[in-house]
Amino acid sequence: MKLFAHRGLSSIFPENTLAAFRACTDHGVNWIETDVNILGDGTVVVIHDSHLERTTNASGSIYNLTAADLDYIDAGAWFSTEMAGERVPTLAELIQLMNQTGLNANIEIKSNEQGAARTRELMSGVLRELEALRPEREVIISSFNHLILAELKRLAPQYRVAALMTKEMMGADWRSVLELIGAETIHLESRGLTENHVKKVKDAGFAINVWTVNEGERASQLKNWGVDGVISDYAHAFRELEHS
Ligand code: G3P
Ligand code: MG
User: Fold this and answer.
1) pLDDT along the chain (244 residues), means of 10
2) Ligand closest in space to the Cα of 230
């Protein structure tokens, strides 16, 4: 079973920073999950929220920023004094790190609150940056925005895509949604997920990765049900589930 470090090793490092991603290689975790969005000047950055308050020392919307502003924003000090100086990485910097370290990534495209044109700009920016990825590095692109995923898959069918869904979203049409996107994989929320859901997905021929799984017992149950991967803040603690 694959183990994805959710936002990097986010239980012991500040989420979505290069420190949190670099720590994965030290702990033998070779897949990360990360979130991307776009600054006002079109730079694609690695950050979960569209506002800076929760994970940096700055405030306001990321949509008002340019790449130069990143030099003045600290994304580590909120977590611990040792982590002060960590930056909000650009996707280009993360891809450089993937090439250097051998990390593979699930890149989650966040829907842009400013509308479709900006979400499309983000998707194109992700594809543009991925051109620098070494061919041996693996990538899965996911999103709750299934329309943008379908568009991305049409433009760049070489990338694996995963539709993010909650159990509630997994209605009668889940299979045709995946097929219309061209998705090979579904990323489902762990809450309320049963063996029957997993069986349905596997019987239909799709891979399934589950988020966010922070208890070892739940991770091993999901593995026994045939889940392909779990996305966890504690991926480093579940290493024995990877190969056994
Ligand atoms: O990609 C799985 C998970 O990360 C989705 O939720 O809010 O943590 O990005 P969130
Ligand atoms: Mg995410």
Assistant:
1) 98 98 97 98 98 98 97 98 98 98 98 93 98 96 98 98 92 94 98 95 97 97 98 95 79
2) 1
Q: Establish whether residue 231 lines the binding site of ligand 1, counting it when its CB lies within 6 angstroms of any ligand atom.
A: yes
CB 139 within 8 A of CB 104: yes
The letter for the amino acid at 5 is A
Cα atoms found within 13 Å of the Cα of residue 34, Cβ hemisphere only = 32
Task: Give the nearest ligand 1 atom to 231 CA.
Answer: 2
What are the extents of the domains in the chain?
Answer: 2-243
- CB of 72 closer than 8 Å to CB of 60: no
- The answer, yes or no, to whether ipTM is higher than 0.90 is yes
Protein residue whose Cα sits closest to atom 7 of ligand 1: 48
Asked if residue 189 has its Cβ within 6 Å of ligand 1, the reply is no
Task: Mark the residues whose beta carbon lies below 5 A from ion ligand 2.
Answer: 35, 108
Token pair listed for 191: 């809450």
CA 122 to CA 36: how far, in whole Å? Answer: 8
Q: Fold for domain 2-243? A: TIM Barrel (3.20.20)
Which numbered atom of ligand 1 lies nearest the CA of 33?
A: 1
